[in-house]
């Protein structure tokens, strides 16, 4: 993939300011909303069955993240995913800690049947979701992205969508094309919600870019390049998270030309 | 309005450290608590029917923000508003995204019948709450505060309270007097929860100041002046939010004399 | 107590990266997760009955904080505490605002019967939990840690665990030994969640250190020393909270030798 295609994705995002409907875990709602605002998108967190379907139908994209899921929000997630499908709206599934816990693993399996536009997780989660592994412990991954490549490809063909596996080098695939995104910073794993916010950023990009793989890669490159800029200014994980938000705002189409793709 | 009256409101707030009971959305609980601590108030987030009425009865003021409302917290909001009324405690309604979603729009209409001391929202929300518009998309406003002035005045007369409409220039009215508060920074709209925290800051001010319009204007001026100070030190939306908390702490009665009132 | 024993506790923590299962209030989930990541632990927030028992059984330690408790999460807390006990896993109880509100006060009394490994609260909360006081208003304490020393000792003997009372000087006791931890910064009380994060840090330390009093003291010293470093770099409560996370990361076994113990 040529990094120049990422520049167009960035422009499309900034021009359209997509409304991203997030059904996400309560730990990361704030950083997710702030990350979306920083990249020029509009976040909205509506996670109750009373409103989730109604709102998904008018959103530009939907994020479903099962990090702190419960019966009530699980129902909202099903309604939102169905409403998104009916409206032809793209939606992203982030299967946090799937594999390790029964309730969310069953929910995630149901959600996969609804064919998420993009699945974004770590290697353990993607392996578990594809039925090929037992998952990690909580949000940690005990596997490398490339270990999950085959499972990711299979899952992508099953959902006819894209699967992105986060790690030191991220892997994005639609079951045919495979793109790797390098760079970033280890500090991304030392601040809560960076990975979850990436899921929301993917949703924002797929709302506005034509090609799904390009949009997903652009989101990953945006996050990685912002992390590099933030790490250069950070004195530790606290200042890193704040500088990362500043850098998400500063990254533009020209910056994305420096993405480490392979 | 003369800015010297704001100085007295600031002193009253710092001297009494009001306990502000917040029933607010989960995205902004942290920044709301931190903003209240920064201005010298004491925050407490108690949003379950099992405790909300009991706590509202002992609080200095109550904030009801419907941002991520659900059946359970809606019931807690009704109980808290009634307990506040019975105790003669002021309470603030923030009708986040009202107009755009059925469940919260009906809830907000019920809450208006309980006569909130202050309503704080953007123009779209105030228009929708007054029955004069269809609301914006999520937290965005598609209208200007002055477009909502007539609706705000009507609503204020109906609740016999104050209505504040946030925007580039904020408008505060009790249906008779109209005060405009200028200044601030566009970065306030690039960080999640700044507007919601303003609702809580209004609650803290009305808990301690004699005149409702003065208290509400003081809260808006406090936020705007802190935003200007923060913007001068910020490198982007991340550092802005942090510097804004520092500045909320630093603003005092003397600072409020520089408020841009008209 | 000799500060050299704290150095070993620090090393044990960094070497084992304990998985801390947090059932905590929604206001402080983010700072709690970030504080745990900063000290080298792995946080996971799972607070629904559908998963809490299953997860507590595989965690290294469990935190139960009743700050925004409701029926659903109260049930999850009971399940997690029982699962922790069955697995021989240490767990920490943070009785936020207990004494002042009926529902949580009854829940906390039940949880004490399940014998938490460590109870961490302010003086008002510990007095209320021990049946010796009426509690403060919300998260504020209206009493001094030493006022709660007798109640803390009694409670510790009843639970056969450790009780830590936070204040300007923290008091840690198992009902026999008493250790005081000085230092810290008043800014810790101006940022939401610092005390709640301390409860989680205690959980991380008791997961890995042999002696309960030593582990609890090490956690308090870690927080206090980081607060001193952060205060030196802070311009207000906003920058303090961020610098505190940086400093939690930077504190190591050598730093702990400077703990103010008595």
TrEMBL record, chains A, B, C:
GO terms for biological process: thiamine biosynthetic process; thiamine diphosphate biosynthetic process. Pathway: Cofactor biosynthesis; thiamine diphosphate biosynthesis; 4-methyl-5-(2-phosphoethyl)-thiazole from 5-(2-hydroxyethyl)-4-methylthiazole: step 1/1. It comes from Modestobacter versicolor. The lineage of its organism: Bacteria, Bacillati, Actinomycetota, Actinomycetes, Geodermatophilales. Substrate binds at residues 45, 193. The keyword ATP-binding applies. Belongs to the Thz kinase family. Its EC number is 2.7.1.50. ATP binds at residues 120, 166. It is an enzyme of class 2 (transferase). It catalyses: 5-(2-hydroxyethyl)-4-methylthiazole + ATP = 4-methyl-5-(2-phosphooxyethyl)-thiazole + ADP + H(+). GO terms for cellular component: cytosol. This is Hydroxyethylthiazole kinase. One of its GO terms (molecular function) is hydroxyethylthiazole kinase activity. Its cofactor is Mg(2+). Catalyzes the phosphorylation of the hydroxyl group of 4-methyl-5-beta-hydroxyethylthiazole (THZ). Keywords: ATP-binding, Kinase, Magnesium, Metal-binding, Nucleotide-binding, Thiamine biosynthesis, Transferase.
């Amino acid at each position: 993939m040529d990094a120049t295609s990422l520049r167009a994705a960035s422009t499309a995002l900034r021009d359209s300011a997509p409304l991203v409907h997030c059904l996400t875990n309560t730990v990361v709602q704030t950083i997710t909303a702030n990350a979306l605002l920083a990249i020029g998108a509009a976040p909205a967190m509506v996670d109750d069955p009373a409103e989730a379907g109604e709102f998904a139908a008018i959103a530009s994209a939907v994020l479903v993240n099962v990090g702190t899921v419960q019966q009530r929000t699980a129902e909202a997630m099903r309604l939102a995913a169905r409403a998104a499908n009916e409206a032809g709206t793209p939606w992203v599934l982030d299967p946090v800690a799937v594999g390790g816990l029964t309730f969310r693993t069953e929910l995630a399996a149901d959600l996969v049947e609804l064919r998420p536009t993009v699945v974004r997780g770590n290697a353990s989660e993607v392996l578990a979701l594809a039925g090929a592994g037992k998952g990690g412990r909580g949000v940690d991954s005990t596997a490398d992205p490339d270990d999950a490549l085959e499972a990711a490809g299979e899952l992508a063909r099953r959902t006819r969508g894209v699967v992105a596996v986060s790690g030191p080098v991220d892997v994005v695939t639609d079951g045919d094309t495979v793109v790797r995104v390098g760079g970033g910073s280890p500090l991304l794993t030392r601040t809560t919600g960076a990975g979850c916010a990436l899921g929301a950023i993917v949703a924002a990009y797929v709302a506005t870019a034509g090609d799904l793989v390009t949009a997903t890669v652009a989101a990953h490159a945006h996050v990685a390049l912002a992390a590099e800029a933030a790490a250069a200014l950070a004195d530790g994980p606290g200042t890193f998270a704040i500088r990362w938000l500043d850098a998400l705002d500063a990254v533009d189409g020209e910056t994305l030309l420096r993405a480490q793709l392979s």
